[in-house]
Amino acid sequence: MKETKKLNKYVELFKRNIQKFLTPGVNISSVVYPVEKEGAVFEFLLKTEESSSDQIEKPRPTVGKVLSEIPQRMIGGNLDGVRFKGTNLYLEGNRILVIKGENKPSEWSGNAVINDVHRVVSTSQGGRNA
């Protein structure tokens, strides 16, 4: 997914929807890793600093390539043949990685963003419903 407009919209909706669940004073910065083929990777950092920022990196060939270049402990080794489907979440410390493996419109809709946020919140609460 290389459509900047869709990527920015996802970030905007994700941040707006997750903010309801955060303590006042927690801000969110994001880094978007577009993918030339299908999908994208979003990195959301929760911080107590007053400013937040959003940036879009240069497109990578695949989601696997992105994951091989950023710090993460979810999957290791040679990621060249790894293919992601749907939406995958990785939570670590103050960081949320949202891995979109497809370009299907249903994966990028407003409802999909809301569902992604609820999955993050539910997971971070130990599986309890948000």
What are the key terms here?
5-stranded mixed β-sheet, 130 residues, alpha+beta, 4 helices, 24% strand, globular
Give an account of the 3D structure.
Helix content is about 30%, strand content about 25%. The protein has a five-stranded mixed β-sheet with strand order 3-1-2-5-4, with helices on both faces. With about 130 residues, the protein is α+β, with helices and mostly antiparallel strands. The model has no long low-confidence stretch (mean pLDDT about 85). Helix 1 crosses helix 4 (about 110-125). It has four helices and five strands. The N and C termini lie far apart (about 30 Å). The chain has one domain (about 5-125). Strand 4 (about 85-90) and strand 5 (about 95-100) form a beta hairpin.
